Amino acid sequence: LRAGADFRGFFIRTFTGKQLYWDRVEDHDYDIRDIAHALSMKCRWSGHTRRFYSVAEHSFMVAFLVPQKHRLSALLHDAAEAYMPDFPSPLKWYLKSLGFNILSELEKRVDQSIAKKFGYEFPRDPIIKEADLELLALESQQLMPEGDEKRYMLPEFDIRLTCLPPRDAELAFLDAYERSK
């Protein structure tokens, strides 16, 4: 046996000490504290930003952009990333073009399991993807180096991103969770 494996299978240990087994993600007891902490420690855009900007901050910003009835789903739209790595979208598209879908399928299983645990609709309302893309454009404008793709990403609103340190982003995420219930 080794770290990340025992007689029950392969797993990761979460911030709160739980074990998520990859062959039964549907049975995991997902904890909002694990999600908030892990997402606060992960930088958006694979870390290629001018300043640290966490997935947690991105998530509560998306939640801020949607009507109240969709806020919990919006807040947790990237929650699977608390348990598995996120790949840049162009890499996901490339891998799918090669027929490599196993990670996307696992991510979807984790995502569905989180939705079931926290009691929101899956798949999500399209308004959440719209807000996610609007925020992506804003992030591109404020955090990314120059590139031709920026001309296709014009944000529809003017918000200044804060770029919180991880602990502050974690606390803000947990606050947004409490307000979204």
Which spans of ≥5 residues are poorly predicted at pLDDT below 50?
none
Structural class: mainly alpha
Read across the widest sheet, the strand sequence of neighbours is: 1-2-3
Number of DSSP helices? 7
The percentage helix is 40-55%
From the spread of the alpha carbons, the general shape counts as: globular
Q: Main sheet, how many strands, which sense, barrel? A: 3 strands, antiparallel
Overall number of strands: 3
Q: Strand percentage, roughly? A: 5-15%
State Rg: 17 Å
Mean residue pLDDT: 94
Taken in chain order, the helices and strands follow as EEEHHHHHHH
Explain what the structure shows.
With about 180 residues, the protein is mainly alpha-helical. It contains seven helices and three strands, in the order βββααααααα. It has helices spanning about 30-40, 55-65, 70-75, 90-95, 100-120, 125-145, 165-180, and strands spanning about 5, 10-15, 20. Strands 1-2-3 form a three-stranded antiparallel beta sheet, with no helix packed on it. Helix 1 (about 30-40) packs antiparallel against helix 7 (about 165-180), helix 2 (about 55-65) crosses helix 6 and helix 2 packs parallel to helix 7. The longest helix is centred in the last third of the chain and has 18 residues, at about 125-145. The mean pLDDT is about 95.
Care to give the gist of this entry?
By secondary structure, this protein is mainly α.
Secondary structure elements and pairings:
Elements: E1 5-6, E2 9-13, E3 19-21, H1 32-40, H2 55-64, H3 71-75, H4 89-97, H5 102-118, H6 126-143, H7 166-180
Antiparallel strand pairs: 1-2, 2-3
Helix pairs in contact: 1-7, 2-6, 2-7
